[in-house]
Amino acid sequence: MTQHETLRRYGLFTSRAPRYTSYPTAPHFNNETGPETMAGWLEQVPEQSKVSLYIHIPFCRRLCWFCACRTQGTQTDAPLRGYLDMLKAELAMVANSLPAGVQLSRLHWGGGTPTILPPAMITELAEAIDRHFPLSSGSEFSVEVDPTMVDAEKVAALGAAGLTRVSLGIQDFDPQVQSAIGRIQSFEDTKWAAEALRDAGAKNLNLDILYGLPFQTADSLTDTVNKTLELSPDRLALYGYAHVPWAAKRQVLIPEDHLPDGPTRYALFHMASQLFGAAGYDAVGIDHFARAGDGLLNASLNGTLRRNFQGYTDDQADVLIGIGASSISRFPAGYAQNAPGTGEYATAIASGKLATKRGHTMTQDDVLRAQIIEDLMCRFAIDFGNVAKRTGAAQADVKAIATDLQRKYADVCSISADGLTLSEPALSRLMAMDVDGYMTNSNRHSLAI
Ligand SMILES: C[S@@+](CC[C@H](N)C(=O)[O-])C[C@H]1O[C@@H](n2cnc3c(N)ncnc32)[C@H](O)[C@@H]1O
Ligand code: SF4
Fold it and tell me: Which ligand is nearest to the CA of 251?
């Protein structure tokens, strides 16, 4: 059987699977987790330990048709002002609940478009964070930047705030693809943003491109990849376009007749991966590439790569605190998500309470399945002894889950007394779905990215 037939037989070209940036995934969170649970989890964070912070800015000036993220369009700065005040109040509340001496591991601003904030608000937010969670020499400060929504003053404000890594969204440089996905962006603007941010101190550059977009061909994607490589990124994300118009309403504007089919998507991914490989970028996990010396690649090589809500990470902190509307916090004990809408979020914070709306408290079975899924996504392998040690589960329980997987995916899995190894990384999300205790046949096909 050819590799293609094997992938087809296991459903790669027809199935949808979550990205498993958490387990359980956010759609399986419940309403039992509220502000009190979140406050309790914050209080239990060990003194002097390291935590990471995610700050969510849900606003965008433009609303790209392809985008599946929860974003809110605004043409004025008025909503930004009110939202910034709420972020500052939430930061103070969170800091008050944490024990003394907690240090910052990673700080990430995501969205939406964090650089929609005018320069003075960028500085104000950075100072507010710094008051409670100062950056130290080892901490990383990264920001997601839309290259069409940044200028010299914003770059200077980010540089002064201590930015160390920037993620620029490219998606595709081809004009026909850009107009079909409602995102026009020139190579020149992107290059300017990359160079200006690097000059301002962002020593590390991440670039995002997508495969599986309408009108994308091998030639057009090759051109996009070559232009992307010209910007000399340290790290690349090559995401598969998730077409989920039932969840992201704007996507009804995407011309579905021109979307590549499953096998073509795979061929595009494979081709772009080869081009990255030839240019000196090694694969990290299922959708990242990085050059020698990059922290994510090092983590992949030494077995410490992890998964969090931003995707792959080399951050080893056990606690990630999400600030802002819809943000999710992760603790060893569970997940806590803030109210999704900015109005509901602001009302909660203005009343002096944390804005936690839903979440999940981990059971022992969740801890085991989460570790197995993280290992499948990050290492394409399950080491029985290691999983048992890290989760406190019996090795027999780890083996039982792996044996079921091996039976189903016999052509791509080998199993020994010590563990299971997967030879087709592209299938790791589908396999993770088989480990997912919350996945039923009825919700298997209705998943977002
Ligand atoms: C939420 S955006 C924020 C970045 C910034 N606002 C920008 O436009 O460059 C982060 C990344 O999510 C990815 N993304 C958004 N919608 C997607 C979709 N439908 N499928 C796959 N990836 C998607 C894109 O690669 C995008 O660069
Ligand atoms: S891709 Fe970026 S700018 Fe476009 S809608 Fe999504 S978050 Fe906003």
Answer: 1
